[in-house]
Amino acid sequence: MDQLLSMSPKNTYVHESDMYSLMDGAEGDKFIAQSIMERVRFDGTHWWCKLERRLTLFEGQEVIVGWHEDISERKRVEDMLKKSEAQYKEASSLAQLGHWVFDEVTEKIVYCSDELARIHGVSPETYVSTIDSTEKDIERVHPDDRNAYAKVINGAQSDAIPYDVEYRIVRHDGEVRHIREKGEPVFDNTGKLIQSRGMLQDITDNRQSEEALRESEERFRASFQSNQGTATISDIETGKYIDVNDAWLKRSGFEKHEVIGKTSTELNIWGSNEHRKEVLNELKFHGKLLDYETYVITKVGETREIVINADVVKVSGKDLLFITGSDVTERNQLEKQLRSSQKLEAVGQLTGGIAHDFNNLMAIMMGNLEWALEQVEPDAPLRDSIENALKAVDRGAALTQHLLSFSRQQALSPAVTDVKQLVEGTLSFMERTLGENIQIVTKHVSEESRVYIDAAVFGNALVNLALNARDAMPGGGTLTVHTTTVELSGETIGLDKEPTYSSHALITVGDTGSGISQDDLEQVLEPFFTTKEVGKGSGLGLSMVYGFVTQSNGHMNIDSKEGEGTTISIYLPISDEERVDKVNEAIPFSEVSVSKTILLVEDDQQVRAATAVTLINLGCKVIEAEDGSSALEILSKRSSDIDLVLSDIVMPNGMSGIDLAKQITVDHPQIKILLTSGYPDRIAAQGEIKAMDIELLAKPFRRMQLAAAIENTATGQTKR
Length: 720
Hints:
single chain; alpha+beta; Beta-Lactamase; five-stranded antiparallel β-sheet; 25 strands; 41% helix
């Protein structure tokens, strides 16, 4: 206390910021001063005080009398209130939240927060002066929303309840803002409405975000549903489906109510549990999956091959699995068919080349064996051996014909033929061959189906199919052969890559036998492949049939399941020609002697020598040429001596037998032409041969066949 009394008022512990305020307030006669200042205690702590001072006389001297009041707590509360008000104002601005009070008696705004005015695009003073009546308050609302707004306000006042309403306002600058307003009416003790108060919030940004989200969801929904591929959304934690698109439902066969809330495991969709684990592991470590090929099971148990892509996406804090898929079942089947077709094409080219060389070798053997047979006595022991060798050559010739049929290079003699008559005629002599335990059932839907085919080769193909069916039914069964006419409109059949159109004769050959496994089904058309025991099948039957059908511009399909039998469907294009040709019958003869001078054109020296011997034994005079150019040179000098030219088709030095025939027809029209080949020409070339009315003799040939061909050619009775 003594320390305090000894100090001048100027030296008391006053905070520096308040020192001048203190001194200024103490000057002046009889001046009464009051101030609030921050002071410092002796211990260095700060405190707030309220100071009142008066200049007065005490014992004849002027003194300053003062009172100090510690207001530190009040000051702390006031500072907190100011800080709170500042925070509240900042929060209201951030939340775009404004407050108001409206006097219903005077129809005046009595309180308007800064944020409320800012939302309306004006200052608080302008807002208060503008809203000076209930009508003015309504006018700030968008014209389209005024009736609804007024209805809500009137209802709240009438029922004495709070209200919550959304509407739009139009600011002075023309901008439209979305508003949410919450308020309540205030009544006095008599029940009279005296005031309305409340708050409103600018929710324009929220509405725009909601609209953008809605549009985004609509775009996603449209994309999700219109996607031609399958699409699913599931909860990655539970595995349950949240949504699936229409394409997924169509391909899976499920109804939507059967799927939502279920897992893929419950629906038994995965065809491979190992694949399912691989997918989940990939998603677990990488969060996505690209172009993963697997297979799924539909509701009815059908297996479909698919390629899927998957992503884990976070929606509202939850991980969702989004999977899209493409059904590639048909694509994979077409690719497999293409690979099989290409493989068969390559094998066909190989077998065709082998058959050509093989035919030339057999032509040499057949010519020499027939010459040798004529040199021995009828009862000579060597005769049996030669005849057995000739039979082996015949079997080899039949084998090469199968190879050529598969490679679509055999020489055909097509004619317009009725399929029904051809089938009936072929099956009529098959009953005894098939056996009593095989029942043959035929059904012909169409009266007549005219096709342009080689009837003899078709009959051979039908016999092959019937024999295959018999072998598949060792304990007996039913062989069913149906014929009808169908209209194709873009279907792909068997190994075909291109769609098929127009009318076709359909011949189906079915059995109730053991059937063919799926693995074997992919190989049955390959030459030398057989499902029969060793020694019981050459493996050329089906490949020959397929080659013939394809060469005839037809199509073939095989449908088989183990234990359920096999059905082979052959589609042959309907011919527009009305005439039904009959196969020419061979001219009967026994020992034929052909007294002709023949120009033999053959590039293979051994084949040429063997053929020359055969011709000489037939009584012919033979002139030999090794190629087309040599033949033309000989003809230019000795054409009057030559009756017939016998020429191979495939020859070197750029001139084929067909080219030679064309030149002879122009230069020496009187000379007859007979063509032969161990590699009968392709369809286009055969068309040229037919147009020139020239007979084609396939190698190897017997002497009697050669004699008949020469006789037919010489007399103009060609048989193509």
